[in-house]
Amino acid sequence: MDNDWALEQLRAFVALSELKQPRSGGGVVFVGDSARPVGSHADIVAAAQVIEQILDRALPRWRTEVEDDGRKRWTRHRDAARRSIVQIERQEELATRLGENAPTLSAASLHPWVWDGAKSLWQSGHFRESVRAASVAINAHLQNKVGRRDLSEQPLFQEAFSNDEPKPGKPRLRPAGDDGGKTALSVRRGIVAFAEGSYAAVRNPASHDLCLELEESIALEQLAAFSMLARWVDESSVVPD
Hints:
single chain, mainly alpha, 2 domains, two-stranded antiparallel ribbon, 4% strand, elongated
């Protein structure tokens, strides 16, 4: 994310949505909190289209963690923008002061098949369900790529990345750079084994233990595992029957 650009957009939105109490006068007296945003509704709506996407990156759970006043005055957006400004401006300091300044993983940087499937659930705090949704999305993309609906998940990966030659109705996938050599055969077997483990040890519990919510960090690790699977599938070429 371009932090300088994001900060500029956030600050402009805060200024547009700032609340201002109307002046009493001409026989009209405003009592209580009658404040309204200083910007026009049209300008704020247009800016919000961009701001919401920045907030999704800088403060992913802003929709559920930042309170709104319920009066349609853009309070949640404005407060989330203020928090995001601080987060962006001081992110290096926070990383240094609060722990190891280690590399971080952003869910938005995962393969699009994974994040697009998981995003809405993730942002509402449904981490386990977001992992399950990502696994379903990868399965669907793999089915589409090889044109098969008769198999899914582990058996589908076993067939798609099989070292056997393609057969009628059973095309194969070959990972990028696959030359049919010893290493290539090992990579195919590894992808199948990784898929079997991911669906058995991650997807199945995510589907069956719905009452046990995952910690956010653990769910992110699981999404990263499915992101690897997604990239292997996406970057593989189809060997038709």
